[in-house]
Design a protein that fits this description.
The protein is an all-alpha fold. About 65% of the residues lie in helices and about 0% in strands.
């Protein structure tokens, strides 16, 4: 698609569409790591282990296997596969020097002069920079150690999403969805992107919303979980301006489960972190306006919206794998449809508003897991459960290994 665009005379504004990075072909002894993890996970699924094992063991295995899968992919380039993105001057890590010993001063002046910020920081709230600064102050000076921590946090989405799917769609579908989630192609960017903090907070928010709306939970316990869900959403909003879209999933879930009053608790919880940040000097809406203005001046004039909208949808398919197609076809057949609504609306808005012009593999990382939930849905509403989609999971794994072999990610 990119080659066709260039051949047609389109000036895409980048030499590496549709992904951030550069193209090369890389095979090394470490290239066997990802295939070994994929074969092990698929063998467990084919042998029925995910169906028989205790749920706690399935969840823990999902996390460890997802962590091994993400690391196995990026280690094709050795240690550089983990550290190269963080060392990039456009990334958040280059920004922590600007914080110095005055995080409140940095917060208060964050929106005043965007030109002094790194490219990544301009399009985000100050949460990622302040978190990296705090980790550095806590003694985490190693770039490799930071990369491993980022990967470990990003992989938390696996057990969190499985927990949410189990609570809404049932344990059988959650067990059969595990393989798709563990071997997702977007794991390539889980190991190299600080947007995983948004993804983990968003997944925890949805999982808390599922717990709040469980029919067995009423009164103060339900209200407390709703408040926690909202607080997590508010925190995620301090890491990404697109995070509030995931709140739509919880709103739809509350109405679908006939618990609409829980929206009050979640709404109040979401306001708390944003209001605290506002009192400390960072007005969230002003930050959003500044980020939009920077985008309008730095990217919009140089990247044609039509070409980039199409290319971004191709990137979405590559990042989610074939499971995305199966999920979209069966969206109506799953009780987990609220998950797809929030993530789907976020992606649709980004494309229709002309904001999807590169880097969607990072920007949409928080939405990817929810877009493939319906891959394990029945063929018709209330129909019999389908077997685990081993072929879909294997196809996605192959796609991930090919992408990692030809792309040095950033």
């Amino acid at each position: 698609m990119t080659a066709w665009a260039v051949h047609s005379g389109a000036r895409l504004g980048t030499a590496s569409a549709p992904f951030l990075g550069r193209y090369r072909f890389q095979l090394a002894p470490s290239s066997v790591l990802a295939p070994a993890v994929a074969v092990a996970v698929l063998s467990l699924q084919a042998g029925g282990w995910f169906e028989r094992a205790r749920w706690g063991l399935v969840s823990a295995t999902g996390y460890l296997a997802g962590l091994a899968w993400a690391l196995g992919l990026v280690l094709v380039d050795g240690e550089a596969g983990l550290t190269r993105p963080l060392r990039d001057p456009d990334n958040f890590l280059s920004e922590i020097g600007a914080v110095r010993n005055a995080p409140l001063h940095y917060l208060q002046h964050f929106t005043q002069n965007t030109a002094i910020h790194s490219v990544a920081a301009r399009g985000h709230p100050p949460g990622p920079v302040l978190l990296l600064w705090a980790l550095d102050r806590a003694g985490l000076h190693s770039v490799l150690g930071l990369a491993l921590l980022i990967t470990a946090v990003g992989t938390l989405t696996v057990p969190l999403v499985l927990s949410a799917v189990r609570g809404v769609c049932g344990e059988t579908q959650a067990r059969r969805y595990a393989t798709v989630l563990i071997l997702a192609p977007y794991a390539i960017w889980v190991a190299v992107s600080t947007d995983v903090f948004t993804a983990a907070l968003g997944a925890a928010m949805v999982a808390a919303g599922v717990r709040a709306s469980d029919r067995r939970r009423t009164g103060p316990p339900a209200g407390a979980w709703a408040l926690v869900s909202g607080a997590l959403l508010g925190l995620a909003s301090l890491f990404s301006y697109s995070a509030p879209w995931l709140g739509l999933s919880v709103v739809c879930l509350y109405f679908a489960r006939r618990r609409p009053f829980l929206n009050i608790g979640t709404g109040l919880g979401a306001l708390l972190p944003v209001l605290v940040a506002d009192r400390l000097g960072f007005p969230w809406l002003a930050g959003l306006a500044v980020a939009r203005a920077d985008y309008a001046s730095r990217i919009e004039p140089f990247r044609p919206v039509l070409w980039w909208s199409v290319i971004s949808m191709v990137a979405l398919l590559l990042a989610c794998g074939p499971a995305l197609v199966a999920s979209m076809r069966k969206m109506r057949n799953t009780p987990g449809w609220p998950f797809l609504v929030g993530a789907g609306c976020a992606v649709a808005f980004s494309v229709l508003a002309g904001l999807a012009r590169g880097g969607v593999e990072h920007a949409w990382l928080a939405f990817f897991p929810w877009l493939t939930v319906a891959a394990v849905a029945p063929r018709r509403q209330a129909g019999p459960d389908l077997p685990a989609p081993v072929i879909l999971a294997a196809s996605g794994a192959v796609a991930a290994m090919v992408i990692e072999a030809v792309l040095a990610t950033l």
